[in-house]
Write a structure and sequence with these properties.
With 151 residues, this protein is of the alpha+beta class. It contains four helices and ten strands, in the order H-H-E-E-E-E-E-E-E-E-E-E-H-H. This is Cyclic nucleotide-binding domain-containing protein.
Length: 151
């Protein structure tokens, strides 16, 4: 794939919307495109997360270990989905296992590349911090809304 294709893909990711061409180019140039085969694990739940992934082609199934220790399908990531965005900011552990539902491609964005973006374009830090904060608040609200299911 061409660099321009990766820039176009990244521009559709909500976290990166509003970044200019140079900023997206920096990410696209430093990111790594990887093929994934159906059934291949992209990462495992509880493993350290040093990068995020954008689904470029195909679908990725997201599993979480259930109370009985059996993995349960929780969601499916389609092209344009950013997986493990918090890993771009700090060391976290993966909250799910990601398995390719079909042959596809992902774009791997290492934390070090993301930090370089923030160093070279400090104004981006405020924008992205606000977006990440909003995403966390949305998750907290969704969890609170489901609290009744667990009582």
């Amino acid at each position: 794939m061409a660099l321009s294709d990766d820039i176009q893909l990244l521009s559709q990711v909500p976290l990166f919307q509003g970044l200019d061409g140079d900023q997206l180019r920096l990410i696209a140039f430093g990111a790594e495109r990887r093929n994934v085969q159906k059934g291949q694990a992209l990462f495992r739940e509880h493993s350290p997360a040093e990068c995020a992934f954008v689904v470029a082609r195909g679908r990725i199934d997201l599993y979480s270990e259930g109370r009985d220790g059996i993995a349960e399908l929780k969601d499916r990531a389609e092209p344009g989905t950013l997986l493990s965005e918090l890993a771009l900011v700090t060391m976290v552990e993966r909250k799910f296992t990601a398995i390719a539902a079909e042959d596809g491609e992902v774009v791997r964005i290492p934390r070090t590349l993301f930090h370089r973006l923030l160093e070279e374009y400090p104004q981006v830090a405020s924008l992205l911090e606000a977006r990440i904060r909003q995403n966390i608040l949305d998750l907290a609200r969704a969890a609170t809304a489901m609290a009744g299911r667990f009582t």
